[in-house]
Amino acid sequence: MTPARATRPLRVPRPPQPEAHRPPQPRRAPGPPAAAPGTLVRALLPLVRAEAAAEAPAAGVEAGDLEQGAWVRLLERPVRAGAPGDPARWVRDVVRAEARRARRIAARERTYRHEPPADLESDPERIALRTDWNRVVRAAVGRTPGRCPSVLTAMLSAEDLTYREMAGELGMSQGSLGPLRSRCLGCLRRMLAAEVAAPERGGKER
């Protein structure tokens, strides 16, 4: 005879527990409220300024640089961290850390002792301004009346003519060159004053 197989008891699924019988789920403790950035800055501003002013002389930096470093540290804090628990201690530690960092940077800096001084004649800005001014002057010279263009062009010559050489090139005597030169320079000066506006206060041109 074949032995009878043992039958396993059927598992009856348990009905879901009612909502009232479920064990309560643990709740996370609420974090500290995040302070508004503007409110936090206004609250810490006097402390940051006072501490930065006290640490700046020893660090050899401007107090404003230490203030800026402290505000950067404040912005790097997590949003939910909120205001520091001890604002005075936090500001003191942050500003002093910025002062130590400034001293370390200053200790590693080295000056270039053998660097040649800058040549003002080769400065690109000066060259551009001088070129533009020469263009304006030569354009105004061409619009002067009578013999003034010839006289002024001779005066602006790169050969740096003497008074006698200038009179000989223009075909006139030195005695007549002097008054004509003065009249032409006065005319050129008035033209440039009208074309190149003088700056007003605040750097604006009229």
Task: Give the gist of this structure.
By secondary structure, the chain is an all-alpha fold. The protein has helices at 37-59, 63-76, 87-108, 124-141, 148-155, 163-170, 174-195. The protein contains seven helices and no strands.
Describe the fold and architecture:
56% of the residues lie in helices and 0% in strands. It starts with 36 loop residues before the first helix and ends in an 11-residue tail after the last helix. It is mainly alpha-helical and 206 residues long. Helix 1 (37-59) packs across helix 2 and helix 2 packs across helix 3.
Topology:
Elements: H1 37-59, H2 63-76, H3 87-108, H4 124-141, H5 148-155, H6 163-170, H7 174-195
Structural class: mainly alpha
* CA-based shape: elongated
H-E string = HHHHHHH
Termini, distance in Å? 123 Å
Radius of gyration of CA atoms, rounded to a whole number: 42 Å
Number of strands: 0
Q: Can you summarize the main beta sheet?
A: none
Q: Unreliable segments (pLDDT under 50, ≥5 consecutive)? A: 28-34, 198-206
| Beta-strand content estimate | under 5%
**What is the number of helices?**
7
Helix content: 55-70%
Q: Mean pLDDT, as a whole number? A: 76
User: Which oligomeric state applies?
Assistant: single chain
